[in-house]
């Protein structure tokens, strides 16, 4: 698949923003480690809003005809993309209301505030599910057509959110041991979940050039694609990645998304280092950005079979 | 009604006339234009509803070239319609034709991801998804003679390798062809249930080339050819 930066940013940033909002709600609801102070709550909710907004804006950037984007809310009965759009928009009023509530009353843990935060968090989590299902329902791309995709989107959104929350806690100069613990646990979950995913998609399965052409008992070889230069199909679906190159990029992904954030977070909590906390946050976003790029480039659409690929 | 095409892989000669006729008709049709990018430049490209690929089936000497035209299959389980968030992609209940409403499409490409057959192509200029309409602006046109109310690709095919008709009618020519010739769907395991069917190449008795007994007349002819100088 063609890995458009706009689509990478959509799920990467909005997923992180929704994960952060959900964790803010959980932490304040359950009063974990004393809950967040008003300043921390404001900072975290603003960060969440910024992340979600980056995601939403970049999603419209990849539309070829954005003037019809408002219609994308109409087919929620069948389309996960429409559902994602509706829930993503529904998140805003509750997140904003919680922001205003905390700013005005200075009591992020009052009942009304907690209800607003919880609603924003739950809607965010539902949106992550919808985002995962956009990819998981496609039977045409076996690397995506698995329940691991929405599950991984949860792990990664929550890991980004937890790292951001720990960074907010450390930067504002408060004890963050519990928050760093949550973040590292979620990052470890991401490492394991992605490993399962890579194991899962490693073996080719599904349609082959034989079932694609119907000549099930013969070898089938392409003689001519029938076009002189690229088509929409080759540009959109033709991208692949050599196996050894993919391995190197996966190692890079694990380095930036897992190893650096864990070390930086441990360092940050031990020495109350705001710089290390920010490094952890930047590194995990970059690392999971690489992950999302791989997610697209490794996805092999079955239409490639008609262009001569023996299997996908 | 379930309208669709039957493509005869036995007689298709791979001339691309169907693709050209399609392009000509539809570039001024309901989803017009079919934009070309850089048509006279070094790397011409553009939007086509119909593409023909060429494959070698089997191993030499038991091999065969098969020409493979592909356009929208107008699937019964059209996932491209299911995933469309705007309602631009729709399947007509009365005849099963899958269409894209150009005034509603936002160009998100999602339907093209859902299509296993590569039937949908984004027009970069209009910013909308375009696809085969089964020449909906021909087949229902009461102004043209009845025998011409067929898709442009079917009318133009010089090898009569394309048939158009209703698959819901068991006695229609397309249904009979599929039944009698073992017509099949592409990638049935994905369960899209495409309307378009493909007829496999016929099995012909091999034409002998070695160890042939020559007829007496042929022998005389050969002898005359050798002896008579021109």
Keywords:
heterodimer, A: 312 residues, mainly alpha, 69% helix, globular, B: 230 residues, alpha+beta, three-stranded mixed beta sheet, two-stranded antiparallel sheet, 22% helix, elongated, ET_IronSulfur_Cluster-Binding (chain B), metal-binding (chain B)
Quick gist of this model?
The complex is a heterodimer of chains A (312) and B (230). Chain A is 69% helix and 2% strand.
Could you walk me through the main structural features you see in this protein, from its secondary elements to its overall organization?
The complex is a heterodimer of chains A (312) and B (230). Chain A has 312 residues and is mainly alpha-helical. Chain A has ten helices and one strand. In chain A, 50% of the residues are buried. In chain B, 22% of the residues lie in helices and 19% in strands. Chain B has helices at 17-26, 79-83, 110-114, 136-139, 152-156, 173-181, 216-227, and strands at residues 3-8, 36-37, 45-46, 51-57, 64-70, 89-91, 98-100, 121-123, 128-130, 162-166, 197-199. Chain B has a three-stranded mixed beta sheet. Chain B is elongated and about 80 Å long. Classes of the chains: A mainly alpha (312), B alpha+beta (230). At the A-B interface, helix 3, helix 7, strand 1 and helix 8 of A face strand 4, strand 5, helix 2 and helix 3 of B.
Put simply, the count of helices of chain A is 10
Classify the beta-strand content of chain B into a percent band.
Answer: 15-25%
As a percent range, the share of helical residues of chain B equals 10-25%
Oligomer: heterodimer
Contiguous uncertain segments of 5+ residues of chain A:
none
Mean pLDDT of chain B: 94
Q: Could you say which structural class the secondary elements and strand pairing of chain A correspond to?
A: mainly alpha
Largest sheet of chain A: none
Major beta sheet of chain B, specifics? Answer: 3 strands, mixed
Beta fraction of chain A: under 5%
- Given as residue ranges, the uncertain stretches of chain B (5+ residues, pLDDT < 50) are none
Total E-strand runs of chain A? 1
* H-E order of chain B: EHEEEEHEEHEEHHEHEH
Helix content of chain A: 55-70%
Radius of gyration of chain B: 22 Å
Q: Could you report the average pLDDT of chain A, rounded to the nearest whole number? A: 96
């Amino acid at each position: 698949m063609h890995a458009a930066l706009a689509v990478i940013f959509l799920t990467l940033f909005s997923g992180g923003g929704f994960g952060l909002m959900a964790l803010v709600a959980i932490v304040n609801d359950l009063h974990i480690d004393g809950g967040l102070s008003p300043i921390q709550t404001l900072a975290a909710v603003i960060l969440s809003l910024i992340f979600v907004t980056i995601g939403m804006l970049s999603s419209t950037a990849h539309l070829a005809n954005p003037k019809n984007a408002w219609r994308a809310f109409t087919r929620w009965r069948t389309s996960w993309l429409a559902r994602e759009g509706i829930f993503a928009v529904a998140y805003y009023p509750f997140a904003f209301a919680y922001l205003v509530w905390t700013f005005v009353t200075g009591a992020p843990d009052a009942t009304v505030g907690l209800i607003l935060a919880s609603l924003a968090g739950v809607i965010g989590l539902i949106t992550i599910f919808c985002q995962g299902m956009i990819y998981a329902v496609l039977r045409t791309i076996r690397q995506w057509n698995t329940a691991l995709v929405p599950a991984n989107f949860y792990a990664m959104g929550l890991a980004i959110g937890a790292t951001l929350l720990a960074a907010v806690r450390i930067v504002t100069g408060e004890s963050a041991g519990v928050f760093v613990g949550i973040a590292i646990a979620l990052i470890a979950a991401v490492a394991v979940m992605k490993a399962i995913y890579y194991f899962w998609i490693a073996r080719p399965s599904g349609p082959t050039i034989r079932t694609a052409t119907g000549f099930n008992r013969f070898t089938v070889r392409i003689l001519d694609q029938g076009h002189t230069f690229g088509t929409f199909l080759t540009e959109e679906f033709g991208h692949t990645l050599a196996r050894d190159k993919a391995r190197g990029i996966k190692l890079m992904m694990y380095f930036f998304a897992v190893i650096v954030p864990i070390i930086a977070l441990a360092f940050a909590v031990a020495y109350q280092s705001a710089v290390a906390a920010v490094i952890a946050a930047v590194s995990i976003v970059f690392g999971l950005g690489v992950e999302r790029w791989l997610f697209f480039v490794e996805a092999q659409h079955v239409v490639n079979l008609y262009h001569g690929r023996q299997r996908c | 009604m379930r309208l669709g095409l039957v493509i005869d892989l036995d007689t298709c000669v791979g001339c691309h006339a169907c693709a050209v006729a399609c392009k000509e008709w539809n570039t001024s049709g309901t989803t017009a234009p079919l934009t070309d990018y850089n048509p006279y430049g070094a790397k011409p490209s553009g939007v086509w509803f119909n593409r023909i690929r060429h494959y070698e089936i089997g191993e030499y000497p038991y091999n065969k070239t098969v020409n493979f035209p592909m356009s929208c299959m107008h699937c019964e389980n059209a996932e491209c319609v299911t995933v469309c968030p705007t309602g631009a992609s729709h399947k007509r209940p009365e005849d099963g034709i899958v269409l894209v409403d150009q005034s509603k499409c936002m160009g998100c490409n999602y339907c093209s991801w859902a299509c296993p057959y590569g039937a949908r192509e984004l027009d970069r200029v209009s910013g909308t998804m375009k696809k085969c309409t089964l020449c909906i602006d021909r087949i229902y046109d009461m102004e043209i003679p009845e025998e011409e109310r067929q898709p442009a690709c079917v009318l133009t095919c010089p090898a009569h390798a394309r048939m158009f008709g209703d698959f819901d009618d068991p006695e229609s020519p397309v249904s009979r062809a599929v039944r009698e010739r073992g017509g099949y769907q592409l990638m049935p395991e994905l369960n899209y249930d495409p309307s378009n069917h493909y007829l496999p190449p016929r099995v012909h008795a091999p034409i002998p080339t070695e160890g042939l007994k020559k007829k007496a007349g042929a022998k005389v002819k050969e002898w005359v050819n050798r002896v008579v100088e021109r």
